Amino acid sequence: MVDSAEDNKALVRRYLETLWAQWDTPAAEAFLAPHYQRHLTPHTPPLPREGFRQRLARFHAAFTDLQHTLEDLVAEGDRVAIRVTIRGTHHGVFHGIAPTGITVTFSLVEIMRIEAGTIAESWGGVDLADVLHQLGAMVSVDPDTQ
Q1: pLDDT of residue 140
Q2: Above 90 in pLDDT, residue 30?
Q3: pLDDT > 90 fraction of the chain, expressed in percent and rounded
Q4: DSSP designation for 42
Q5: Where are the domains of the chain?
Q6: Helices (H) and strands (E) in the chain, counts
Q7: Residue 21 neighbours by CB distance under 10 Å
Q8: Residue 37 and residue 55 in contact, taking contact as beta carbons nearer than 8 Å
Q9: Burial of 112 (0-12, 13-18, 19+ CB in 10 A)
């Protein structure tokens, strides 16, 4: 049976509530397929569930008071797209930057593929350059890569 777009949207809402509002990573993993892959960029290999768990743990260690606002949720077929605004205070080391106490606000844009009632793949992520800029890091772009 193929889940409807509304079923898929409800699944993603529950996943976000579990992951971001309760910050319950093990419970959130129940929403992910065993073969889940997180595609961050076209140039890096996708993260499996364990790699994604580690990434989330590092993020939460750096921003312990994260709050999210679901701005957009769109579904068609087996895909769900979200746009989320996230706020948090920099309380732990993040990408080598010592805690600053700065509160940051940034976006998460993601497309998820739903398979048999679980999230099988996702593409996208947070605007890391924006987060680093808000923390005072110097972000530069190599002109040869544009």
Answers
A1: 65
A2: no
A3: 62
A4: T
A5: 5-139
A6: 4, 6
A7: 11
A8: no
A9: buried
The CA–CA distances, whole Å, from 114 to 20, 42, 88, 118 equal: 19, 20, 28, 6
Q: Which helix (H) or strand (E) holds 128?
A: helix 128-134
Per-residue pLDDT of 96-125, as tens digits, reads 999 999 999 999 999 999 999 999 999 998
* Choices 3.30.930.10, 3.10.450.50, 3.40.1000.10, 3.40.140.10: CATH for 5-139: 3.10.450.50
Residues in the chain: 146
Report the SS3 class of residue 44.
coil
Residue with the two structure tokens 């768990």: 53
User: What are residue 67's DSSP bridge partners?
Assistant: 87
Q: For residue 138, give every residue at least 6 positions away whose Cβ sits within 8 Å of its Cβ, in sequence order, or none.
A: none
Distance CA 49, CA 58 (A): 14
Q: Which residues pair with 69 in a beta bridge?
A: 85
Q: What is the pTM of this model?
A: 0.85
Q: Taking Cα atoms as reference points, which of 146, 12, 100, 121 lies closest to residue 131?
A: 100
Contact 110, 80 (CB under 8 A): no
Q: How confident is the model at residue 146 (pLDDT cuts 50, 70, 90)?
A: very low
